[in-house]
Amino acid sequence: MGFEAPLWRAIAVFRIAALVYAATLVVRNVEEYRSPVAGWVVLALMTAWTAYTSYAYADPARRGWPLLAADLAVAAGCLLATAWVERPDRIFEGAPTLPMAWVAGPVLAWGVSGGKRRGSLAAVIIGVTGITVHGISGRGYMPTQATFNGVVLVFMAGFVVGHVAKLGIEAEARLARAIELEAANRERERLARRIHDSVLQVLTLVQRRGGELGGEAAELGRLAGEQEAALRSLIGSRSEPVADQGAADTDLRTLLAAHASTAVTVSTPATPVPLPPRTAREIDAAVVAALDNVRRHCGPGTRAWVLLEDDPSGVIVSVRDDGPGMPTDRLAAAAEDGRLGVAQSIRGRIRDLGGRVTIVSAPGEGTEIEMVVPLP
């Protein structure tokens, strides 16, 4: 719908309310007019033009200069008609003009369509026209204090509404661009996690095995290593997976139990731990990445333990191993080298779920990764 649509609807409502007020004054003062018939004609024109502009401005394609110029011309014409409809003595005494506040409608339209400068220009034209009414009424050029007050109010309306509308439209455009960029970044990170969990691991395996076998296999391993490095450099952006809609909850225990083996012990609560499918899948994928790190970086015979804890405020999943541990600067060095397994496959996933990851490790003491995810 956009930021402008409500503004144009508000202007249409203002025109109708101002028309009702002007009609009330015409009905009350028509007997005092120099030409009552002309007063009714002006009121009929204002009514017809209000109906037309409410329809015309609703379509963005018609909000161009022809309609804006015609709108301002009709308002100025109805304002000038006061000099022939009202008696000169009443104008001299400060009688209200025929359209009253209705003339502010075009000023607001100009402000919304072009900002404070265009709104101020329309206000000046309407203000000069209102002052001119006193010059052609037959009693001399004697605008009243009420006339000047009206000019100032119309000018302020055109300036402020135009300024606010311009700021709102620009903010909406920036927000749309930011959302677009964020969506693109989130999608890139989602793909990066998928790549890390599949392609990069295969390339790493080929590189390691090729170096062990030697000969032509070593060359193949070298090429795989180069491609791995090139691919890692492309997957360093943030993202957030798209949430599932309307799907039944998934028991996280079932997903985690599938990782149990002679080297991995999985402990879960006795009761189900239901989570939205996307949340459960992302937590399970983070656990898979943690266990894969154990297999890749720890020696043979290393054991791992997966512990699932269910809390009223969320779930806690811990992955602990009895491997050699790692230095405190290992993760930072891996990130600098483009190895983002922990940063994206674990921390990235949990962060996107609104949770946090704590990693505790020291040389010779194993590693523990604790993932805390709040319930949606």
Automatic annotation (TrEMBL):
It comes from the Bacteria. Keywords: Kinase, Membrane, Transferase, Transmembrane, Transmembrane helix, Two-component regulatory system. The keyword Thylakoid does not apply. Signal peptide: none annotated. The chain crosses the membrane at residues 7-26, 38-58, 65-85, 91-112, 119-136, 148-169. GO terms for molecular function: kinase activity. GO terms for biological process: phosphorelay signal transduction system. It holds the Pfam family DUF5931. Residues 285-375 form the Histidine kinase/HSP90-like ATPase domain. InterPro entries: DUF5931, HATPase_C_sf, HATPase_dom, Sensor_HK_TwoCompSys. Residues 1-176 form the DUF5931 domain. Coiled coil: none annotated. NCBIfam families: HK_morpho_MacS. This is Histidine kinase/DNA gyrase B/HSP90-like ATPase. The lineage of its organism: Bacteria, Bacillati, Actinomycetota, Actinomycetes, Streptosporangiales.
